[in-house]
Amino acid sequence: MRTIESLFITSSILLAGACDLPDDALDRDAAELAVDDGEDDDAVDQLAAAPLQDGEERFGEGVTLLDRVELPGGTELTFLHLDLDGEESLGVIEHQPPGALALADLTLADASFLDLYLAVTGPQSEVPEPLRRLAEDNELGERGWLERRLARGDLDLAAEPHVVTAACDAGFQSWLSNWYPGVATNSRWALNEDPDSDADWYGPTEPLGLGIACSNCSETWWHRDYYNDQFELYNVDEMKMGVDVCNLGTRPSITDGTTTLTHYGPILRFRYRTEDNASSGQVWSHDVTAAEEGGHWRWHWLGSSTDGYNDYDWTIEIANARAADRYDLGFLWEHYGW
Fold first, then answer.
1. Is 197 exposed, middle or buried (0-12, 13-18, 19+ CB in 10 A)?
2. Angle at which helices 145-152 and 113-120 pack, to 10 degrees?
3. Cys staple from 239: which of 6, 106, 269, 333, with CB 3.0 to 4.6 Å?
4. What is the per-residue pLDDT across 196-232, written as a single tens digit (0 to 9) for each?
5. Left (φ > 0), alpha (ψ -120 to 50) or beta: where does 116 sit?
6. What is the pTM of this model?
């Protein structure tokens, strides 16, 4: 039986072909923002290069926020439209905050990305055009049926066997494994990662992404999951990956005399690279707040055997960690030979 967890898989994705090993590393610390027609390019470039403020998020070039839905208990689903190298796709980020419950064991076997959106939103929410065009509507229920069941408390999520509250322990592996369990052939785990001692982190060094001359930059900062490390997924046809921020160390304020950044970092990014390394970029980046300690973030992606949107490389990047931080990371993926 497939569960609602399988709904979070992205659909109709990306390019075909193989990717060569790259030379780029943490090379794009500033997110790229969409530019509206007529908007001043210099002003947009300046904003895109500005450091992320505490709690701020950005989406990469070609990535459009379609909608964000908060479920009872605080779990958020962020629906995204990607237009990368002329190929369109859909995606979803799930944020499960500390103490919130994930959804599990709901019988929605043939649900699509659009099915999920229709289940968690009422008729007052207009269905985004890319969802209508790129995803199937399998007519699994009246509009907003899951939203209403959750609001009424019909589903005892706390009693479900696969529900795991946010924590930095084996629960992270269990939850990611049980979220669309069909993706399980290949896996990599990095549990309770210690930036100060684990080999995949580099530093200590100055904080990344500032573009300013700053004080407190000599403090110890660590960075990981740049391209070419063991946790990049090469040429995958389907994947799911997630990160927990288990513990956050203290962070000094950073200032250049006119700009002060309070609680700078860590910055989480979901990054991709297209066919033959034609382009690389990020889907999303977020500067984690102190209140988000203990939270889960997950990103799901599925290629297409018919349209040739597959064989992307994916990685999670964490920039501006501190020595007392702790993280769980997980990657599960499939190669179907598309």
1. exposed
2. 50
3. 333
4. 888 888 888 888 888 776 777 777 899 986 544 544 6
5. alpha
6. 0.80
